[in-house]
Design a protein that fits this description.
The protein is an alpha/beta fold and 229 residues long. Helix content is 42%, strand content 14%. It contains seven helices and six strands. Strand 3, helix 3 and strand 4 form a beta-alpha-beta unit. Helix 2 packs parallel to helix 3 and helix 3 packs parallel to helix 4. The mean pLDDT is 96.
Amino acid sequence: MNLFSVQDKTAVVTGGARGIGAASAKLLREAGARVEVLDIESGCDVTDEAAVGAAFARLGGLDILVNNAGRAARKPAVELKKSEWDAVLELNLTATFLCSRLAQPYMKQRGGGAIVNLASIMGLSGGLFPNASYQASKGGVVNLTRALALEWAADNIRVNAVAPTFVRTDLTVPIFGNPQTLEQVMAHTPLGRLPEVDDIAAAILYLCSPAARCITGITLPVDSGYLAR
């Protein structure tokens, strides 16, 4: 038995058009899953409950959900508009809840499933740079993960999260494009290397796979040692 196989499973990856989402969709396909990507670029706004519900209904069943879609508003809290705060919380936290809630009946009907949420080291620490809405949303994801894991354990639905450190994606262009800022990040990276999107995807596949059949309610850092400091 291949413990990391998700052969013939149906998976949904939100925000899967690029970055960590695209890498996760690719790796899940390589591991045998049928993968559906829900992304604003392909016409599905995952903050729209009706649109997500219709997408799930078209699939007719669901075994794996990766809640990856997210955004950030990286600025000092005193400069952060309420509309910006609301937009970050709506996508990063509320959409994660809505997609999970909509997936639960399909997974229960199939005898179980796996949900993996995208948290962040910013949900487990105060971070390095002003980013209050993002940090609050990802802290919410960490505890939502625990809450749903406990609530749905009896249905054999495992709910976990991964917490990446800084990864080169569209969201982190301001970090990687500024040598001084990147130097600060590397000063908090004991391994001396930052993960790539494929490293995060590998952790997601693990949590979706039979290899993690007794793991639920955890947030797995992929952080090159950031949180160990």
